[in-house]
């Protein structure tokens, strides 16, 4: 089994309206999570601080992040892989999934090698 610190994680967001990616190890849809209430949000994407502040402090997002991390831990325990690809999708792939990927990248970067 690969040591956790030796596992490379590729994390990306996608929009369901453009199709679901193939060849991923873990796939999560967050279309059920609340959308942002930021005024003129269309001019921003999920990397913008206003969008992240609005979304990532909601209980639903915090809970889902914990779920993803737990499933990643289970996956690494069950599979002997040096590289894991995780895809997270919302409807357009611009706000919710991008914000979540950014946050996960920060959290997972302390434990895994991020690509």
From TrEMBL:
One term of GO molecular function: ATP binding
Sequence ranges assigned to domain RapZ C-terminal in this UniProt record: 8-111
Protein name: RapZ C-terminal domain-containing protein
Entry superkingdom: Eukaryota
InterPro entries: RapZ-like, RapZ_C
């Amino acid at each position: 089994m690969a040591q956790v610190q030796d596992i490379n994680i590729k994390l990306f967001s996608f929009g369901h309206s453009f199709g679901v990616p193939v060849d991923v190890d873990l796939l999560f849809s967050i279309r059920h999570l609340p959308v942002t209430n930021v005024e003129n949000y269309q001019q921003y994407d999920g990397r913008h601080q206003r969008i992240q502040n609005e979304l990532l402090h909601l209980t639903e997002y915090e809970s889902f992040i914990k779920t993803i991390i737990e499933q990643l831990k289970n996956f690494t325990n069950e599979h002997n892989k040096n590289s894991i690809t995780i895809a997270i999708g919302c409807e357009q792939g611009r706000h919710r999934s991008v914000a979540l990927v950014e946050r996960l990248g920060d959290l997972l970067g302390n434990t895994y090698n991020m690509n």
